[in-house]
Fold:
Amino acid sequence: MPAEPGPGAPPDPKEIEELLLGGKLRHTRVDVVQRAGVTREFSSRVWRAFGYPSMPDAEVAYTDDDVAALYRIRRLMDDGVLDEDGVIRLVRAFGQTMTRLAEWQVNLLSGTPGADSQETPNPEAARTIQKIAEKHMGEFEPLVVHAWRRQLAAAGTRAIAASATREAGSAAARPRIAVGFADMVSFTQMSRELEELELARLVERFEETASDIVATCGGRLVKTLGDEVLFCADSPAVGGEIALSIASAIKDETEVPDVRVGVAHGPVLPLMGDLFGTTVNLAARLTSLARPGSVVIDEELAGRLEGEPGFAITRLVRRPVRGLGIIQPYVLRRAGTRTASTASSEPGPGEAT
Structure:
């Protein structure tokens, strides 16, 4: 265990790095390449994909786990599980996901999110991270693996179901699902008016509320984009429920402005955890037609929700939207709510007239 630093003295960065890495920095880049049995060029591609900085060949900057990671990656290729490009895509996905997770964890453990100033964390915050890591690292790491396995199981189940659907119909058929965007109102203006930490807390609260609702309803949060979230659901009813729940929950949040929600149903192209296609573009366009706190859906989703208990659907005027031509939008509400107009009769910002 590293020696306790003197009062007021900052912790040794190398000691903290080795503590968090779980091993001593004992290898140069040349050592890692030789021990893992890979080429220098391949190791460079992997490190870049992970998001690691390039290190001089002679610098001792790698642990035994770095060697083991490269060796495992090579085995995936040797066993024919993935080719080199597939490995790089996989590693990049891991790197991008873990970068955000690591930054969030350090900010949380050091107390930065609740700080009243925007100063760089002081040595005491660094010592706090060091003490927590020394005592509780064994609890944190299994949680990451547990969450990954849970999400992997869910994604694998969805893939199997989609494959069965394609086999039952057209081999080239894409999965047809509900896709929705929830977009915060006046976010650009707020970003100019709020302090950075206030804006960060607002975005975190918005993402937290939306992600909790999506998970509770049985959908999937595809990604967050600061002032908006993209979600999806296999069932039209679940997609509608998520949309209405997010709009309602955010309306009740005093710290977060209202959202506009747009949802469409149709074929999508799942790729590397994201969704692409006309259905996704249509859902994004529908958000600009909604009034704050309301949900606007496309014609296909409206047809699938017709007669579903708990939903009320109101037809709006057909209108042109950029890149998609003339569309038929509908307002989605809870059954029994008043029928006052909840979507603009005029084209939204950026839409054609």
